Amino acid sequence: MRRTVLGLALACHTGPTVVVTALSGAVAAAVGAPAWTLVVVVLSVLLGQLSIGWSNDWIDAPRDLAVGRRDKPVVRGLVGVGTLRGAAVGAGLAGGVLPFVLGPAAGAAHLVVVVSGWLYNARLKSTPWSWAPYAAAFGALPAFVVLALPGAARPAAWVVVVGALLGVGAHLANVLPDLDDDAATGVRGLPHLLGRRADGVLAPVLLAAGAATAVLASDGPPGLGVVLVGVSAVLVGAVAGSVGLVRPTSRLPFTLAMVVAALCVVALVASGDAAVS
Q: Per the record, GO CC terms (predicted)?
């Protein structure tokens, strides 16, 4: 039993699940969500991300076994494919239904997030359209948080743009370390078609653009702290892009892209009041 629990914990893609859930909670708090709304938002996003993570490892199990991915719990024998499938479906159903208690618009927005994640895992990751589910899911996620607010709150257009830029940038950066294993098992998404050098340059550029958009969208002149966050994101993105050009096999662009993503999140949260139109 303990091995299964450990396998499920590892197979949910713990890092991204925690980060996305925490980001959603931070944005909800930044836009003034009541306590009940905040709890439902966080729980809904957590269930959705668990479902997406588990479905990824379930669907990818044959490929992971073929290349001996020892970082995957299925390959290590910690959890079975059937268990992952059941957990993914259960969490997906719960995460798809729960947000509707916050209203039909909020429920529909979160459904876009979950369905996009499943579409990526099941089919689109191996096509030139692999970026589209990330753009849709990350664009819909902050929109869901705003639509969950009581009343007639609507997300500002820039919030969706920032989310989409963050999503596509994160997609390109996330795939960088796995390009060789993916190629060996026939995965040919947009990052694979672009190549390691282009990925290493484009990922931080998109993430930095997201941070800059969040900074410029602030009501009135942005504060010094927000400006510093935006400038830092652009500078780190420039370094990551330069390394990607000079050393296309380096893992440093991926690490720096994650730093830019974190700065982009900070800028988005800091501009929370402007997210509601």
A: membrane
